[in-house]
Amino acid sequence: MFIAEVVGNVWGQYKHKSLDSKRLLLVRPIDPMTEKPTGEAMMAVEGGVGAGPGSIVLVIDEGTGARQILNDKAAPVRTVVCGIIDRVCMNGKEKGYD
């Protein structure tokens, strides 16, 4: 799992049938305290939490867990947004996101 910022939407004319009703997002891993990017952007399936561009999110990057969140054993996914983060506490410091 990692913390990321949603930096955009992804549209595709053709999707696997298990993704027909799912939104695709572009997420970029960030340092949760500084909000600086820590990696390259990647595509993730929106897991039903209501995330969109600008949201700070929790992302699972593991196939079995991702398919369990989507409740679809056949879905060809690995990366799913599974939560929206309101606040992070780390090493005695706290960071909130509006």
Question: Mind sketching the topology for me?
Answer:
Elements: E1 2-10, E2 24-29, E3 42-46, E4 56-61, H1 63-70, E5 79-84, E6 87-90, E7 93-96
What key attributes describe this structure?
OB fold (Dihydrolipoamide Acetyltransferase, E2P), single chain, 98 residues
Descriptive notes:
With 98 residues, the chain is mainly β. It has one domain: OB fold (Dihydrolipoamide Acetyltransferase, E2P) (Beta Barrel), CATH 2.40.50.220. It is 8% helix and 41% strand. It contains 1 helix and 7 strands, in the order ββββαβββ. Strands 1-2-3-5-4 form a 5-stranded mixed β-barrel. The radius of gyration is 14 Å and the shape is elongated. 23% of the residues are buried. The mean pLDDT is 93.
Indicate the structural class.
Answer: mainly beta
Label the overall shape.
Answer: elongated
Q: How are helices and strands ordered from N to C?
A: EEEEHEEE
Strand content: 35-45%
Number of domains: 1
Number of helices: 1
Helix content: under 10%
CATH homologous superfamily annotation: EutN/Ccml
| Largest sheet strand order | 1-2-3-5-4
The mean pLDDT is 93
Largest sheet: 5 strands, mixed, barrel
Task: List the uncertain runs.
Answer: none
CATH class: Mainly Beta
Cα-to-Cα separation, first versus last residue: 22 Å
Count all strands and give the number: 7
Q: At the third CATH level, what is the topology name?
A: OB fold (Dihydrolipoamide Acetyltransferase, E2P)
Named at the architecture level, the CATH assignment is Beta Barrel
Q: Radius of gyration from the CA trace?
A: 14 Å
